[in-house]
Amino acid sequence: MNDVPWPAVSLLCSLLVGLYTWIATGQRVHHEQLETLRRDVEKRLATVEHEQAKQTEQLRHLPTAEQLNALVVTIAELRADVRSLTTQVTALSARLDRIEDFMSRQT
């Protein structure tokens, strides 16, 4: 047993303990980094899900294509009605002008 080089064994044990400590510390740091990344991804995912829910709710209130087409038809009908009313008001105005001229000549 006296032939065992104790300084070499001691050095080897020290190196093994140092290697184990380095690996364990690296894994802990790596695990902490992964945990931080996981929390960050979960926060971002929650934010995206919240935004998606808001946009989905906003889309529910938008008119459908059928409703837009009905609106276009209704607006076209209203324009036609306004044109008709404009024509009638113009004719009525002309009649009133003639009546006013006639009345002013009578006095």
List the helices and strands and how they pair.
Blueprint: H1 6-60, H2 65-106
Structure description:
The protein has 107 residues and is mainly α. The mean pLDDT is 88. It is rod-shaped, with a radius of gyration of 45 Å. The chain is built from 2 helices and no strands. It has helices spanning 6-60, 65-106.
- Percent range for β-strand residues: under 5%
Which residues sit in consecutive blocks of at least 5 with pLDDT less than 50?
none
Radius of gyration: 45 Å
Q: Approximately how much helix is present in the residues? A: over 70%
The rounded distance between the terminal residues' Cα atoms is 149 Å
Essential attributes:
single chain, 107 residues, mainly alpha, 2 helices, 0% strand
In short:
The protein is mainly alpha-helical and 107 residues long. 91% of the residues lie in helices and 0% in strands.
